[in-house]
Amino acid sequence: MRLIINGEYKDCTATDIAGLLQELGHDEALVATALNEDFVPRAARGHTRLSENDAVEIVSPMQGG
Questions:
Q1: Over the stretch 5-58, which tens digit does the pLDDT of each residue have?
Q2: Which backbone phi and psi does 54 adopt, to 5 degrees?
Q3: Coil, helix or strand for 31?
Q4: Domain locations in the chain as residue ranges
Q5: Domain 2-59 grouped into CATH 3.10.20.30
Q6: Given the DSSP bridges, would you call strands 55-59 and 2-5 parallel, antiparallel or unpaired?
Q7: Residue 65's pLDDT band (boundaries 50, 70, 90)?
Q8: Rounded to whole angstroms, how far apart are CA atoms 28 and 51?
Q9: Pairwise CA distance, residues 1 & 30, whole Å
Q10: Which H helix or E strand runs over 36?
């Protein structure tokens, strides 16, 4: 399936956000996610289904000053 991940098109096999994070090698506890501009809580990622051309944002907090 083709998705827009952080503004770039990528082909993925995952069918939900939890699977996508695993496929991309992200630690699920360390990122925030949004699907089509709507925040997706960590508890909902496993049953938040993905569809062709969905836009997913994956954000990692950064420390600094």
A1: 999 999 999 999 999 999 999 998 899 999 999 999 999 999 999 999 999 999
A2: -65, 150
A3: coil
A4: 2-59
A5: yes
A6: parallel
A7: low
A8: 20
A9: 25
A10: none
